[in-house]
Design brief:
By secondary structure, the protein is of the alpha+beta class. Helix 3 packs antiparallel against helix 4 (78-96) and helix 5 (149-157) runs antiparallel to helix 6 (168-184). Strand 22 (478-490) and strand 23 form a beta hairpin. The protein contains 9 helices and 28 strands. The strands form 5 sheets. Strands 13-14-15-16-17-18-19-20-21-22-23-24-25-26-27-28 form a 16-stranded antiparallel β-sheet, with no helix packed on it. Strands 9, 10, 11 and 12 form a 4-stranded mixed β-sheet that branches. Strands 3-5-4 form a 3-stranded mixed β-sheet, with helices on one face.
C-alpha cells in the first residue's frame, strides 16, 4: 500500500528528492522526507467543556451555544478545536444577552490531551456582569380594537416593565400575545408599527418600543356550499358561526372537523380569503347605533365581511364493518355492520349490527334523525332481537324503542322509551315465563380524560334510571337505578391508580316477574376478577345464578410501565349482588400484564378468588379503554 503525502505518494516524494541524494545534506533530507510520510495529523475525539460561575437557564443556553461543546461524529483535528475555542467569547456573550447580561467577564483556558489521552479540556469561568434594566417602555395598542378585552388582558399579562431586567423571551411573549389576541378577534390587518429593543451596553440600559396597530376588524360573511348530498339549509346547521360574527380562523377549523365527523362527506375544502372581503353597510339600525354606540366604531360605515365557501365531496353511500375479538367474558366474538349514510337530503341514516358470541347473539337496527345541534344530537328509532345469557338464565328478547341522544358540556344525555317482550326460564316449577315491559328511562353520562384510549388522567360517571308500570301494560311494576364511576389518576410518570365502582338498586313488587335483562349480576373481566362472568348473584334451588335486586362493586388497581408501552398491574376487586342490602362481598386479587396499544388497553390478568374454595385462579383477557 502506498502512503499518501502532501507532495504525492511515497515514490513521487523520493523521486523529487533524488537529486539531493548526492549532496552533502543527504541524511537531513531523508529524515525530513520520511517524517512527512510517516507522521499523521493528530486528532482529538473528545472535548470536555467545563463552565463555572453561572447556573440554569443561563448555563444551558451557553452550553448549547458553544461550538466547541457541540456533538460530533467524526474526530476533530487540533486546529479545528483551537478555532472553535477562539469563537467561544462571542458565543457566550450572545447566549447571555437574551437574559439581560451584555457585559460578562470571561476567563478561558484550553489544555491539550496528555501523552496517553485524547481528551482536550476547555474551561470557561464566567461572571455574567451587571443586569441590563428597562429604563423606557412604550407598550401600546392603537386602532379600532385597542379596547378589546382580549387585547387589554394581553397588555395586563405582559411581564415587561420599567426598572426590571431585560429578558428577550418576555418581549417575544408579549408580542405574540398581542398579535394573537388581535388576529383571533378578527383584526386580520394587525401589524406592529414599532417593534424594537434598543440596548446601550455602555450603561446597561434598554428602551423598548412595541406598538400594535390593529387595523380594521373583519367579520364572517355568508357561507356557501358546493355539494349535492344534503340540503344547504341542513348543512348550514353544522356551521359554528353566523354571518356578522368576528372572523376567527379557528372557527373554520372547527367547521372542517365537524363536517368530517358527520361521515356524510369524504373530502372537505374551505375557502375564506381576506382579499375577498366586501364592505356591507347595515340597514335601518343607524338610530340604534347613535343611542347605543357599537364596540367597533367602524360598524357605522359598514363591516368588512369575508365570504366562506365550502366544497365537499360525498362519502360512499354505504359503509360496512367487520370485527372480531376475544374476551374471557364472551369467548370468541364477531360483528357485522352496515350503515346507509345518504337516505335523504335531510341527513337521515340507517344502521344495522349483528353480534355473535358465546353469551349473546343479537341483531340491532336504528333509524337516526339529526335534531337540534345536528353535529351531535339525534333522535333514533330502534329495533332488536337477542338471545342472551344472564348468569345461568337464557333469555330471548324482542324490542323496539325511541331514543333522544344529545350532548352536553361533559358528556351525553339519553332520554328513551322501550317496549320489550322477553321469554326466560328461572329454573323453577313454572318453566318458561314471558314478560312485557314498556318503560321510559333517562341516562346521564360524564367523561373527561386526557386520552380516551390510553388514559393517564381522567374520570367517567353514569347514572341511569328507568321503570315500568302495570297500569301502562307492563307485566310488573319496578324502578331501577344504577350509578357507575371510574377514575384514572397518575402516581408517577410511569404509574397510575385506577378506581372503579358500581351501585344499583331495584324497587319491585314481585321480583319473580322481573325478567333477567332487568336484574343485576356481577363477576368477570371488568367487575370482580377471579370469578366467572355474571357468576356472582343470588341462586335458585339448583345453584343457578338468577340475578338480584341490589348491586355493589368496587375495585382498586395500580399499574407501572416497565418498558415503553408495556407494564404490570396489581389489583383488588370486591363485589356482590343480593336481594337485600346485607352484602356478602366477594373478593378477588391478582396481577396482570398491560399494553397501551393503538386501539386501547390490552389486559391479561391472573386473578385469585378469595371467597371461592372451588377455584384457585382465573385468567381474564380484555381490551378497551379504562374509562
Amino acid at each position: 500500500m502506498r502512503t499518501q503525502h502532501w507532495l504525492g505518494n511515497t515514490s513521487t516524494v523520493i523521486r523529487r528528492y533524488s537529486t539531493l541524494f548526492k549532496r552533502r545534506h543527504l541524511p537531513l533530507v531523508v529524515v525530513i522526507a520520511l517524517a512527512g510520510v510517516l507522521v499523521r495529523p493528530a486528532v482529538a475525539d473528545t472535548v470536555n467543556v467545563n463552565i463555572d460561575g453561572i447556573n440554569d437557564p443561563l448555563l444551558a443556553n451557553v452550553r448549547n451555544s458553544l461550538s466547541v461543546a457541540a456533538e460530533h461524529e467524526k474526530p476533530w483535528a487540533p486546529g479545528k478545536i483551537r478555532r472553535l475555542y477562539r469563537l467561544a467569547p462571542n458565543e457566550i456573550k450572545a447566549a447571555l444577552a437574551p437574559f439581560g447580561y451584555y457585559n460578562p467577564t470571561i476567563e478561558q483556558t484550553l489544555a491539550e490531551p496528555g501523552d496517553d489521552g485524547d481528551t482536550w479540556q476547555a474551561t470557561f469561568r464566567i461572571d455574567r456582569g451587571p443586569q441590563t434594566k428597562v429604563t423606557a417602555l412604550n407598550l401600546a395598542v392603537r386602532g379600532p380594537g385597542d379596547e378589546l378585552p382580549e387585547i387589554r388582558e394581553a397588555l395586563r399579562a405582559s411581564k415587561l416593565a420599567t426598572g426590571k431586567r431585560l429578558i428577550h423571551s418576555q418581549y417575544t411573549a408579549t408580542k405574540n400575545a398581542l398579535y394573537t389576541a388581535a388576529y383571533d378577534a378578527g383584526y386580520l390587518d394587525a401589524r406592529f408599527s414599532q417593534a424594537v429593543i434598543r440596548v446601550r451596553p455602555d450603561n446597561n440600559t434598554a428602551a423598548i418600543d412595541l406598538v400594535l396597530d390593529t387595523g380594521e376588524r373583519y367579520y364572517f360573511g355568508d357561507v356557501s356550499f358546493d355539494q349535492d348530498v344534503l340540503n344547504d339549509d341542513f348543512v348550514r346547521r353544522f356551521v359554528p358561526f353566523k354571518a356578522g360574527d368576528p372572523f376567527d380562523a379557528e372557527r373554520l377549523v372547527d367547521l372542517q372537523l365537524i363536517l368530517s365527523d358527520t361521515d356524510y362527506f369524504n373530502k372537505i375544502s374551505i375557502q375564506a380569503e381576506r382579499g375577498d372581503a366586501e364592505r356591507e353597510a347595515p340597514i335601518g339600525d343607524w338610530l340604534f347605533d347613535i343611542i347605543y354606540p357599537p364596540d367597533d366604531p367602524l360598524i357605522s360605515i359598514g363591516r368588512l365581511q369575508v365570504p366562506v365557501g365550502v366544497t365537499a365531496e360525498p362519502s360512499k353511500p354505504q359503509s360496512y364493518q367487520i370485527s372480531a375479538g376475544y374476551g374471557t367474558d364472551t369467548g370468541p366474538r364477531v360483528g357485522l355492520g352496515v350503515k346507509f349514510r345518504h337516505l335523504n337530503k335531510r341527513g337521515h341514516q340507517f344502521r344495522s349490527d349483528l353480534r355473535l358470541s358465546a353469551v349473546q347473539q343479537a341483531l340491532q337496527a336504528s333509524y337516526d334523525i339529526p335534531i337540534a345541534n345536528v353535529a351531535q344530537d339525534k333522535l333514533s328509532f330502534t329495533a332488536n332481537v337477542a338471545n342472551e345469557d344472564f348468569g345461568d338464565i337464557t333469555s330471548i328478547n324482542y324490542g323496539i324503542g325511541a331514543v333522544r341522544d344529545t350532548g352536553w358540556s361533559l358528556g351525553r344525555k339519553r332520554a328513551y322509551i322501550n317496549l320489550e317482550r322477553e321469554t326466560y326460564d328461572l329454573g323453577d316449577d313454572v318453566g318458561d315465563r314471558t314478560s312485557t315491559l314498556l318503560y321510559p328511562g333517562y341516562t346521564l353520562t360524564l367523561q373527561k380524560a386526557d386520552d380516551l384510549l390510553n388514559t393517564r388522567k381522567g374520570v367517567s360517571a353514569s347514572v341511569d334510571v328507568h321503570g315500568a308500570s302495570e297500569s301502562l301494560g307492563s307485566s310488573v311494576d319496578f324502578v331501577q337505578a344504577k350509578v357507575t364511576g371510574n377514575a384514572v389518576l397518575p402516581l408517577t410518570s410511569k404509574s397510575r391508580l385506577l378506581l372503579r365502582s358500581q351501585f344499583g338498586a331495584i324497587e319491585v313488587d314481585d321480583f319473580d316477574e322481573l325478567p333477567p335483562s332487568q336484574r343485576f349480576f356481577t363477576g368477570g373481566d371488568r367487575t370482580v376478577r377471579g370469578y366467572g362472568y355474571q357468576q356472582i348473584s343470588p341462586e335458585n334451588a339448583d345453584g343457578d345464578n338468577i340475578g338480584g335486586r341490589y348491586l355493589a362493586v368496587g375495585s382498586i388497581e395500580a399499574d407501572y410501565k416497565v418498558y415503553k408501552d408495556y407494564g404490570l398491574a396489581a389489583f383488588f376487586d370486591v363485589g356482590d349482588v343480593a336481594n337485600t342490602t346485607s352484602f356478602d362481598l366477594k373478593r378477588g386479587v391478582g396481577i396482570g400484564f398491560r399494553w397501551a396499544s393503538p386501539v386501547g388497553q390490552i389486559r391479561l390478568d391472573l386473578a385469585h378468588p378469595l371467597d371461592d374454595p372451588d377455584s384457585d385462579f382465573r385468567i381474564h383477557f380484555s381490551l378497551g379503554p379504562d374509562l
